[in-house]
Amino acid sequence: MRLRSTFWPTLALLLVSVLLVPHPARAEVLDRIVAVVNDGIMLQSDLEREMEYTANQLSARGIEVPDMATLRSQVLEKQILTRIQTQRAAKAGIRVDDRELNEVLTTIARQNNMSLTEFADTIRADGGDYLAIREQIRDEVIITRLRQREVDSRVLVTDQDIDLFLAGQPEQDDTEYHLTHILVAVPDSASPEVRDEARKEARALRQRLQDGADFAGLAVAHSDGQQALQGGDLDWRNADSLPLVFLQAARTMEPGDVSELLETSGGYHLIKLVDTRSTGERKTVDETRARHILIQANTLRTEDQAQAQIRDLHQRLQDGADFAELAEEFSDDPGSRNNGGDLGWQSPGMFVPEFQDVLDALDVKEMSSPFRSQFGWHIAQVQDRRTRDITDESRRANARGTIHKRKAAEEYDTWLRRLRAEAYVEFRAPDGTVIGTDVADATSS
Hints:
- This protein is α+β, with helices and mostly antiparallel strands.
- The protein is built from 14 helices and 12 strands.
- Strands 2-1-11-12 form a 4-stranded antiparallel sheet. The chain has a 4-stranded antiparallel sheet with strand order 4-3-6-5. It has a 4-stranded antiparallel sheet with strand order 8-7-10-9.
- The longest helix has 32 residues, at 391-422.
């Protein structure tokens, strides 16, 4: 199973932090239902386990743990959003079986220089619940696939989008920014009164920051952003991958500065610039232009006959025959035969290793001896080599990826808010009575 780079490094880091955070023994909790989410239930034991893990993780990172009522509210809301998405995924037929999950876990263990058995033993030795973590990772994989299907796959980026994006950035910004973030969210189609209240709350948070409050601690306790329980940490991001309103603010800030209030349709934001770093350099690629003749075994030609024919062609080439003419007459490669065997300019890694290794060992104009790859018998010749500046191509490719990420992130936030608004959620008191459907009320139980 191939892992997507946009998701798994983050998950691997998360698991590293799990391994480094001590998990003291939990007191026994009499299990009960704390919430009903659509047709599913959420248990006190799961909530307590996640609260303990989150508190330990925050402490290990030096972030002040909020009071238990606030922590409970944040963790519970996160679990509700997870449950809503996994329920939708189940209805869509998205599942991750144990074989696939074991492949994912093995990859994560390898990233931590462990076998899967060592990985599980380390988590248990630190007091962690390996089975619970295993199921949490299963949920993360399922949610990622759901998001790819329902959000990411529907986001389109046109050449016009790229042109407009690059036109708005006449000078390439090679700076990376490390930001932390607090969001006071505003519901879709919120009334002016609701927006005013959200603005007042965001201003009050900024005042507390000016008075010396810890940014990460306030993010954990008050942010509605997806990184709230990580102290609002957005990690390192290049300029192109930041929302424009964040980038414009960050460019005017020094490390340690907190922005003014930033308003978007989704609410009010505060960002803190942790640090910056430059990555500016021109990008080049070494390319090779080669040609080849391919002879394959088939129903009319045995392997030995194919080998004999390629040797005969090689001898004819050494005797002065024209490479292109022999390729057009004899080569079994339909993609290059009509071009005299010409494969065009190609970057390293475009060919299978057996073919690439032969090309890399040849000088310009040098012809190989017959050799075999998984496709058959070849004779190859390097026609030319060059180093090409791909800075502009890379910039357009990066712009396409950036635009897609921005659009997908906006669509995902909107999609997730809609799912949350449409879900049936009720909260239960310790005696089992329903205490409301507003997540804020859950802190009173």
